[in-house]
Amino acid sequence: MKKILIVEDSSTVTKILRHLVNQQPDIEAYFAGSLAESEEVYQAHKDEIFVAIVDLNLPDAPNGESVDHFLAKKIPVIVLTANYKEETRSALLDKGIVDYVIKESRYSYNYVFKLVRRLDKNQHIKVLIAEDSRPTRAFIRLLLQKHLYQVLEANNGLEALDVLKDNPDVKLLITDYHMPEMDGFALVKAIRQNVDKSDLIIIGLSGEGESSLSAKFIKNGANDFLQKPFFHEEFHCRIMHNIESLELIEQIQDAANRDYLTNLHNRRYFFSKGGAQYQLAVKNGSPIAVAIFDVDKFKKINDTYGHKIGDDVLRFLAEEIQHNLLHFLVARMGGEQFCAIFPNLKNEQAVTLMDRLRSVISNTSIPIDHEDQDLDITISVGVTNYVHDSLEQQINYASELLFRAKDAGRNIVIGDDDD
């Protein structure tokens, strides 16, 4: 949960903000009505405060002194004011505030909380600047750092390709048109041979007046274009719009790869991602384990308690899987059956890991809402490291071990050494 400091002397505005804060499950706020009070709050919680939202006109700071006060503490500052003056707005943006928001409507206040969440997310987003002009590169870097992005730099297109190779998790590239060795167009073309628009945002830049440049950039694979010089707010709005579009695509893709009931990955994703892990292990000659497991006597649970309780059992199991197998790919294969893949683990290691999960499940009871009792469940598991001609064949052999676990009395893990 992110904790913010709101400095506002209007009781009406404070009431509105308190109400909106209560609707933000991921944000907690400390309130102050003056600069002096805000300093007291800051000293009491300085290790917790993520962002300061400040009014420009306070009883003891009538001329925006609160902005300088918190900028000096290296805290991101969002100005929330009823007064719009162009010269004040420009001066404050040049000082390094995150944004200048006018108290116009409920949307304005909601936009402030959207900014707070955006800043939190930005801390985990890498942005690469490809620009041969050092002053321009420094200016763009400063704009991005105000919004807490992780910033990488390159002097030209060739350097940018090297940086992207070393940092495949870069989400946004901002590239100038004119650069030595490889210009912006050539850079975009080279990237788009392997990287789709839904995986990396590219925004082109140019100071030239040719009106067709924006179309050329976008036709060659850029997501957007900005003409230099640009305003702070236009820059941040374009960046935010493109990042949010990318995040929306990622959410849609992730939802398509998830099982609706358990939120684990689904069978299709498992064979896609797990298949790549399998092929890499075969290529490198490294160990790879596969485990197939399911809920013992699941049909009896459904027949006795109903499918709603059966769904609760599967959700409970999924939560324990996510907790105990956090760093590995696990999917619901269908019904009560699940599959996990363990790159670089030997069979005894994978068996130990799965037996730990089995023990947790067998020692935890599930409360039944409409019954005055708890439900105890167990799982049976088959684990193999025998690499076959395909991942599917390895899974099939793990399934044979699972059947042997059932025959051995259930609530047991059978591995290769038990064959």
What does this structure look like?
The protein is 47% helix and 22% strand. It is an alpha/beta fold and 419 residues long. The protein folds into three domains: 2-113, Rossmann fold, CATH 3.40.50; 123-256, Response regulator (Rossmann fold, 3-Layer(aba) Sandwich), CATH 3.40.50.2300; 265-418, Reverse transcriptase/Diguanylate cyclase domain (Alpha-Beta Plaits), CATH 3.30.70.270. Helix 6 (134-146) links the parallel strand 6 (126-130) and strand 7 (150-154). The two termini are 49 Å apart. The model has no long low-confidence stretch (mean pLDDT 92). One of its GO terms (biological process) is phosphorelay signal transduction system.
